[in-house]
Design a protein that fits this description.
2 domains; 2 strands; 4 helices; mainly alpha; 96 residues
Length: 96
């Protein structure tokens, strides 16, 4: 549930370990990054990819996931383009 104590914070940090995201039972997810741009990027695309994965699983039980090397290359590629979506999201917020 919600992190309301140092003990729960430590437990969440331990669950995250070196991973960028963790599901929190009854309270969604927590996403981390090296800076706000990466954390927001991961948040947006983690939700989008979760929906796509759910749809794929509804169509077939055989979903082919990225292997560790593909995931590493994807992360490197994404990190090189963080400024593009960040600038778009900033414009959208400023336009409101």
């Amino acid at each position: 549930m919600l992190v309301r104590s140092a003990e729960l914070g430590r437990a969440l940090a331990q669950s995250l370990g070196s991973h960028p995201a963790a599901l929190m039972r009854g309270h969604g997810a927590v996403i981390v990054g090296r800076d706000i741009q990466q954390a927001v990027f991961r948040s947006v695309y983690t939700e989008l990819n979760a929906h796509l994965q759910s749809e794929a699983l509804a169509l077939s039980a055989k979903v082919i996931y990225l292997d560790p090397e593909e995931a590493k290359k994807s992360e490197e590629s994404n990190n090189g383009t963080l400024s593009r979506p960040w600038e778009l999201w900033l414009r959208k917020v400023k336009d409101k």
